[in-house]
Write a structure and sequence with these properties.
heterodimer, A: 333 residues, alpha/beta, D-Maltodextrin-Binding Protein, domain 2, 2 domains, ten-stranded mixed beta sheet, two-stranded parallel ribbon, 18% strand, B: 307 residues, mainly alpha, MetI-like fold
């Protein structure tokens, strides 16, 4: 007898669930997803924004990677997308097909840092050409020893560590070094979790890896950053706040972005969130140890937001070597 | 029996006993290997995480500052998802198990179903995630919600529940069925008055094993769209500005403990790693509590069986 009662109750519950299902959309909610590089900034903004609104507006932030984030964004599932590279041609097409229009706002600078083990005493700096020899697709299975890159270097196995293929970090690094986004050798330890890469490089004297500057900063006792020579005749430059801002750390410094759905921007909660993002961006970016843009840039962003300036300024490709100054000019256009 | 034969016999007994002892030692070593590994991992986690565990840690939302960050949204999310999982998987699984044991005709179709159920238990969890993304999120339009996650995990543990139910039913002596049928009972009466009550202890064990697996799952939950930063709880029934219906929480966005932990382990700051360890410690406690509840319930249920 008990069981019949139970099934009646559950049937009743299921119908109640179905009836109440559509109500949830009424709660003011801002949905953000995308890059793990941008995540710490958006998290900080979301945290403070919710507090300043006394929790009357809710913000959710996911980490699907830049590419995964754009997939959701272009289906109209999210209001804001975190991106560690500009939107690509294919993603622009997807957005267009789904009728999603967007605005693009650079919000900070990230410096991809090439790191080696602290016990590595033969590398004082690396040129982009040397990095290309190591990372280009043709090196797969062939370049496996430091000696093969430069005969002056010791006979030691070369162990490579890098960002996973779904990340904007990987896209940008391959574009900057190999000249083509996503074109890379495949036989390296890839992880979306940068701490795995940190551990890998810290354990192996013959290791070389790349990831965002903040992971290097937190682990600089375990790792050594390599000064990068952009091309012959240029000085070797270590990544730092100063060299990123003055534009000398090239080509591995890159702007990172948020993309805002134009339709969502008309919702008051999304509008307030984006405005809060730009007004407090500089302070919060600094707090999570990422390189902020000059204060002026956030002002431009606000202005463009109120004017609803649509589209991307990158034409669907990853531009390498965009300095903060270039970016400002592009914004000023 | 002459002296020689006796000696040979004694030597054989000694050899057999030696083998007995040896196997005992191997058995203990095998057990220890597992236990010690777990103990070492658990101790390591406790050492790293215990300092962070406090009431604040349980009642705070995630934060960019490791010292202020807590697991409120994560543990509430995990509990709610588990609730949905249990409500979906237990009735379905038990009904399927009972059908297969008591109702299903013994023919090749039943055989195929049986083989499939056992095989389903071995399907990687990410496959369930992909299935759920297509079916629950897009086709049924349930969204990236607690309901979707709970149903996904329910699918995942369904085979375990079915298999456990069948095992439990099989352990009921045949005389009980025969006695009941002899008195003129229908199959449904036999099932509802005897089979299910008597096998409930065994079923419960299966359910808990399944739930313990589900609470630690990350892959399918991420696939169906669990989020990382959530600093609010699902609206309680009958609260809020527009009073929420009793089941609105089912459609709320959510995060769960393993995702919160994973997010913290991938942060650059070392302080977040102790947060992750602390969250892991609590997750283990949650699993232990679930197992404890099961043992207690099983004990209660067994006491009520009077054969």
């Amino acid at each position: 007898m008990k069981i019949t009662k139970f099934s009646a109750v559950s049937a009743l519950m299921l119908s109640a669930v179905a009836a109440s299902g559509l109500v949830y959309a009424d709660v003011a909610l801002v949905k953000v997803d995308g890059s793990s590089t941008v995540y710490p900034i958006t998290e900080a903004v979301a945290e403070d924004f919710q507090k300043s609104k006394k929790n009357s507006i809710r913000v959710t932030v996911g980490i699907s990677g830049t590419g995964g984030g754009f997939k959701k964004f272009c289906r109209g599932e999210t209001d804001v997308s975190d991106a560690s590279r500009p939107i690509l041609k294919k993603e622009m097409d997807d957005c267009k097909a789904a009728g999603v229009e967007y605005m693009e706002f650079p919000i900070a600078y990230d410096a991809l840092t090439v790191v080696i083990n602290p016990k590595n005493d033969w590398i004082k700096s690396l040129t982009v050409a040397e990095l290309k020899t190591i990372w280009e697709p043709g090196a797969q299975g062939k370049i496996t020893n430091w000696k093969q890159v430069n005969p002056a270097w010791p006979d030691r196995p070369l162990k490579l560590f890098g960002a996973g293929a779904d990340s904007g970090t990987f896209d940008y690094f391959t574009e900057a070094i190999n000249g083509k986004s996503k074109s890379s050798r495949g036989d390296f330890t890839a992880s979306e979790d940068d701490n795995v890469l940190v551990q890998g490089v810290a354990r192996d004297v013959g290791a070389l890896g790349f990831f965002g500057f903040s992971y290097y900063e937190e682990n600089h006792d375990k790792l050594k950053a390599v000064p990068i020579i952009e091309k012959d005749g240029k000085p070797a430059v270590l990544p730092s706040l100063k060299t990123v801002i003055d534009g000398t750390y090239q080509p591995l410094a890159r702007p990172i972005f948020i993309y805002v759905n134009v339709k969502s921007a008309d919702k008051p909660e999304v509008r307030e969130f984006v405005e809060y993002y730009m007004k407090n961006g500089e302070k919060l970016v600094k707090e999570v140890k990422i390189v902020p843009l000059p204060a002026k840039a956030y002002g431009y962003n606000l202005e463009h937001f109120s004017k609803r300036v649509k589209g991307t300024k990158f034409g669907g490709e990853n531009k390498v070597g965009v300095t903060i100054e270039d970016l400002m000019k592009m914004e000023a256009k | 029996m002459n002296q020689q034969e006796l000696q040979a016999l004694r030597a054989m007994i000694v050899a057999h006993k030696r083998w007995d002892t040896l196997f005992g030692v191997i058995g203990i070593l095998a057990l220890m290997l597992g236990l010690m590994t777990f103990a070492a991992l658990f101790a390591d986690m406790a050492i790293n995480g215990l300092g962070r565990i406090s009431v604040d840690f349980l009642t705070s939302f995630p934060s960019r500052r490791a010292a202020n960050a807590g697991i409120l949204s994560a543990w509430v999310g995990s509990v709610l998802v588990m609730l949905v999982t249990a409500f979906a998987a237990v009735p379905l699984g038990v009904a399927a198990g009972v059908y297969l044991e008591e109702y299903a005709p013994k023919n090749w179709i039943t055989d195929i179903i049986e083989i499939n159920v056992s095989n389903l238990a071995g399907v990687p969890s990410i496959i369930y995630g992909l299935l759920a993304l297509g079916l629950f999120v897009y086709t049924f339009g349930l969204g990236q919600s607690i309901l979707t996650a709970g149903l996904t995990l329910a699918l995942l543990i369904l085979p375990v529940v079915i298999v456990a139910t069948r095992e439990a039913i099989r352990s009921i002596p045949q005389i009980i069925r025969e006695g009941a049928y002899a008195c003129g009972a229908t199959t449904w009466q036999v099932v509802s008055d005897h089979i299910v009550p008597y096998s409930s202890a065994g079923i419960l064990t299966g359910v808990i094993i399944g739930m313990a697996r589900a609470i630690g799952e990350t892959a399918p939950i991420i696939t169906v769209g669990a989020l990382t930063f959530i600093a609010f709880l699902p609206t309680m029934p009958f609260t809020g500005e527009l009073p929420a219906g009793p089941f609105d929480w089912l459609f709320a966005p959510f995060t769960v403990m393993p995702i919160q932990m994973f997010n913290w382990t991938s942060r650059p700051e070392a302080a977040f790693l102790s947060n992750a360890a602390a969250a892991g410690f609590i997750l283990v406690l949650m699993t232990l509590a679930m197992n404890g509840l099961a043992i207690w319930l099983r004990y209660r249920l067994r006491k009520n069986i009077k054969w």
